[in-house]
Input
Amino acid sequence: MCYDTLYEAVGLTAIKYGPLHNAFPDPDNQEDIMEIVVKHDYEEMSRFAAEYIASFIRKKPDCVIGFATGGTPIGTYKELIRMHREEGLDFSNVITFNLDEYLGLGIDWSKPYSRDQSYHRFMYEELFCHINIKQENVHIPDGLAKDPEEFCKSYEAAIKEAGGIDLQILGIGGDGHWAFNEPGSSFDSRTRVEKLNKQTLDDNYEAFFRDAGFSREDMPRYAITMGIGTILEAKNIIMLASGRKKADIVARALQGPVTNEVTASAIQLYRGNAVVVLDEEAASRLVMLTGNAARCC
Ligand code: GLP
Output
């Protein structure tokens, strides 16, 4: 997949930088580039991200997409739903692999639907129920698996069997995590069970559990997550962040030292096409985006 071609298809312009860190440059690899797109606000960011994903699907209707959860991609998913309804965006051959799921949560399809805070529920309510995706093409880590370790191995195998992930959608956690790869996770980690740290539990409680009437103690302490190594094997990455509260961690991930204390900083090691879509607030701490170097599109 040629990123420039895809980008032209989107019909928008972006700020283009080479690798921001020159610790691992690869001048011969034209595709080893991270593009940072700064949009005015959350709505514009979401529309851009959805258009990017949609143009990917139009070019490769049977593509494998890695989906993410969290508040950030909700606007993107809403726009994808609109495109499906109004423009006929076709998901019938798209295969999906979600990044993560809380251990102990998930949908038991043999039982009546019940409200829970699983990422399964999130994905079906925010996207999958509203588009023509085939259920057999949807893969989400099974938080209810009897043998989670075995499940993790089978998830990795399923990704390989599907031919790998063509486009991975990512957010960023408050502590800089990708998926549920908490600080300290190895950059070559694979799908596994991970213990969630306090900040992640606090953030996700506020964002998703509190209003649904759950107590902090009800929150799962563990999750199944794709590893950083798994994510870095995706052929393309689109990472989203919005809001002032993400500004510091976005700057650390994109421009700070590459460290597994901020697992999203692995993006600087990524060998492929990475596009980071931010709103102005989330981009406000990026040093290269100040003064004349800045250009919003
Ligand atoms: C969770 C998810 C991550 C997501 C993060 C940020 O921890 N596991 O994949 O990136 O939340 O979520 P939000 O977009 O709500 O800030």
The first helix runs from residue 3 to 10. The pocket of GLP is lined by residues 68-72, 99-100, 171-173, 179-180, 200, 204, 207 (CB under 6 Å).
